[in-house]
Amino acid sequence: MKLLVAVKRVVDYNVKVRVKSDKTGVETAGVKMSMNPFDEIAVEEAVRLKEKGVASEIVAVSIGVSQAQETIRTALAMGADRGVLVETDVAVEPLAVAKVLKALAEKEGAQIVVLGKQAIDDDMNATGQMLAALLGWPQGTFASKVEIADGTATVTREIDGGLETVALALPAVITADLRLNEPRYASLPNIMKARKKSIDMLKPEDLGVDVTPRLTTLSVSEPPVRKAGIKVPDVATLIEKLRNEAKVI
Amino acid sequence: MDIRYTKEQDAIRDGVKQICDGFDDKYWSDCDQEKRFPFEFHRAMADNGWLGITMPEEFGGANLGVTEAAIMMHEVACSAGGYSAASALHLNLFGPHAVVVFGTPEQKERMLTPLIKGTDRACFGVTEPDAGLDTTSITTFARKVEGGYRVTGRKIWTSSGQVANKIILLTRTTPKEDCKRPTDGMTLFYTDLDKTKIEVRRIPKMGRNAVDSNATFIDDYFIPDRDRIGEEGKGFHYILHSLNPERILVGIEAVGLGRGALARASNYARERKVFGRLIGQNQGIQHPLAENWAYLESAYWMIMRAAGLYDAGQPCGAEANAGKFLGGRAAFEACTRAVMTHGGMGYSTEYQVERLFRESILLRIAPITEQMILSFIAEKVLDLPKSY
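ok -> structure tokens follow
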């Protein structure tokens, strides 16, 4: 069974993100970029499925600038078998990404597409769901546990009220939540092996997908600076303020 | 000229950092206070294949150069573990070099594979109490007997001897006075460190306490022929090959240690408020830290230059030694400044910088002193008369 796993190149989670002075976006020049942490979890799950003998091949896919090859290399070092980069300088939106992934899933004959539940840069949380809709496949989003047997994926989902378990007939789309697993480190031998694995370079046109953005960013600004709280002298004042100022009790 | 990192080198740095980040201040502070070897850290690095970075691929290594090893060790020394973390791994990277180059296929398989897996730990027995850096004056003697050698002698500053089960041992097999050249007549072994027969006595010391240093007493110890590396009498020439990589790695570890200390100092200066303002706003605090950065950076690139030369198979003695000199100085200055920036808190173990400071002075002394480096450069580069 072939697995497709989608990986996005984002600003590293340790970096303090700064808004560009012209407010058109955030600063990425000279900033450390890494794989979206939820995508790392997705890759780890795919690799585990291969180790269990469920998957036979893992294809890591990224869509974006040429440097996203590094992100794919990271997935290859974790255990993916080969990579595909759909190269574009356009700031791709979830629908465009979903269309590209649909085309690739069909081209590759993948049985499962695993994605992070969302990317930490724009927090859209949309690509997996859109992809499932476009493919007409069932989806198990926010997965905290995945089991595959007899053509069925049993996915435990993290939902507001607790956990929900769904059974999906394959092929299916799964998006990874934080608690699904703890991604492995890329070991040195695997970093070396990853160097020899292939990455196919495609353009969106090769897949017949138009990735032109449909949204226009008007302005990006920093969140307001959080104001310091106040200290109250006693409980009575606290209650009074909660009741009359904050109006929460 | 291209002095940018390759993608693979970026991946090495990230990979090492991920593992190091799993071992925090408390872990290293405890190791230092309890004088305990960081077994868990050593195991994590071994399990992820890092101990074999410079070792041949057929024995589980990655066959990379000193440049990559330097990138790795810089990252290790930058981490909370500082020079202790680096010392816990260091020997694996250059120590077995003689085995790699001069060992038989059987020896390589037998000796390198367990070292790379981290199941064997080796220490380096070269320095002696009465020889120091004057290596040709060592007196540990290996007398040829049936099937092997019987060895008697004293070694000192044997790092990690308490936890090692193997020793790389340099001996004399011909007394110095009977040799044509003082560098002849020495023989190298890689053999068991059997502590029922060899006494390894811990030396109480100032810092880097997670990795022990020892005096080693060897009396009539039998070493089989199969543990001799290369030919009898050529041992000194064999270890010479690993000296420049050692200088490069120690130099870069010093820079890493200094950068770790500088980061702690900057973080503190950015948060600590006195007299209604951040101390980091004062030029009296800022400028020394900025100066530390500049010196660390210059040492870093000098060492990388030496590593590049070494990997290209070119002479790098002057660069490697100068890099170690600069790295040691810059690290010591940065660690001292980190303590001073913290004021009184810098003297408490809680803020970690005193631990780094205690380690940093070692980098100015070992494995070669500043004075010896300067004499070397004076003689070899500036063509001045030998002074000793």
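The interface with chain B takes residues 34, 69-70, 73-74, 77, 185-192, 194-195 of chain A (CB under 8 Å).
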